[in-house]
Amino acid sequence: MAKKSVWSDNRFWQRSAAWVTGFASILLIWLTFDTSVQIAMGTDADLQNGVTKRVPGPTVINYKITYEMSTARGHEVPVIGEKELFFGRDDYSEEEAGALLHLGKLGSQTKNCMNCHTLLGNGAYYAPDLTKAWLDPAWGPEGSMQAMTGKETKEEAMAEFLQHPSTYPTHARMMPNLGITAEEAKGLVAFLKHMSSIDTNGFPRNFGKIKGAVHGK
Amino acid sequence: MFEAMTDVVPSFFAWLNQGPLTLTIFLHTIIILPMFWIYKQEKARLESES
C-alpha cells in the first residue's frame, strides 16, 4: 500500500484553514475596537492639558492650527498652538463648539460637498481636497482667496466665499451657488477648521507641497 | 530593520505597521508555526492508521 502524504490529506488543509480564518477574525475584531479608541474625539480638558489626540475636541476652533513636518514620523502633522480668534471669539464652550461642528457636518451632508470635494479621503477629486483646506495659505492673510473676498480674517473669507461661490472666479471648475446661509457657512468653516486639526498620518500627501502650507515654507 | 515607534499612541497595531520585518515575523509566528504543529499531528495520525 502506497504511503499517504500529509500534503494530499484533507484534514491537514481543513485544520490549517480553520486556524488562519479563526485567528484573522479575532485579530480584525481587536483591530476594530483598537481603532475605535484611537479615533475617539478628545475633550476640552485634553486641549488645555496638551494631550495629543488624533481627533481633538470641538473646542480646537479656539486655537491656532499649523502644519509642521515631523521628522520622526516622516510626514506633516497638525500642531495646535496658541489661542486664536474664530469669528471674533476664542472662548467657545465645548457645547457651543460642538453645536457649530454639528451644524457644519450636517451642512456638508445636505449640500453634498463630497459630490465634488474630498473630505478625509471620502469623496471626489473634481474640486480641491478639503481635508486640510483651513491650512491652505490661499486663505491666509497673504492669500489670493482672502484678498478676493475682501475680508480681514480667514474664517470670514471662507464664510463669504461659501455663501457666494459663483461670484468669485476661482477655478476652471467654478463652485455653484448652493444657497448656504451665513449661519451654515459659519458651521461649515468650523467643521473645516476642526477637520484640519485631525492627525491623518500626513494625508493628503501632496498638501505639504503647496507653497506656504507647512510652517510658512 | 526595526524602526522606532512613531505612532501617536503606541499600540500592538502600530508595532505591526512599523516595517516589513515586524509583520513578517508576526505572520510566520501565527500562521506558519502552528501549521508545522498541525502537520506533525496529521502525519502521526496517518502513520498510526496505516
Short description:
The complex is a heterodimer of chains A (217) and B (50). Chain A is built from six helices and four strands. Chain A has 217 residues and is α+β, with helices and mostly antiparallel strands.
Protein described:
The complex is a heterodimer of chains A (217) and B (50). By secondary structure, chain A is α+β, with helices and mostly antiparallel strands. Chain A has one domain (44-209): Cytochrome Bc1 Complex, Chain D, domain 2 (Orthogonal Bundle). Chain A has helices at 10-38, 44-48, 94-110, 144-149, 154-163, 182-196; strands at 63-70, 75-83, 118-119, 122-123. In chain A, helix 5 packs across helix 6 (182-196). Chain A starts with 9 loop residues before the first helix and ends in a 21-residue tail after the last helix. The relative contact order of chain A is 0.14. Chain B is mainly alpha-helical and 50 residues long. Chain B has two helices and no strands. Chain B has helices at 12-16, 20-49. The model of chain B has no long low-confidence stretch (mean pLDDT 86). The chains are: A alpha+beta (217), B mainly alpha (50). Chains A and B meet through helix 1 of A and helix 2 of B.
CATH fold naming of chain A: Cytochrome Bc1 Complex, Chain D, domain 2
Rg calc of chain B? 17 Å
Distance between the termini of chain A: 78 Å
On the 0-100 scale, what is the average pLDDT of chain B? 86
Query: What percent of the residues of chain B sit in helical stretches (DSSP H or I)?
Result: over 70%
Overall geometry of chain A comes to elongated
Q: What is the chain-wise order of helices and strands of chain B?
A: HH
| First-to-last CA distance of chain B | 47 Å
CATH 4th-level superfamily of chain A: Cytochrome c-like domain
- The proportion of residues forming helix of chain A, as a percent range, comes to 25-40%
Q: Could you give the count of β-strands of chain A?
A: 4
Number of helical runs of chain B?
A: 2
**SSE string of chain A, helices as H and strands as E:** HHEEHEEHHH
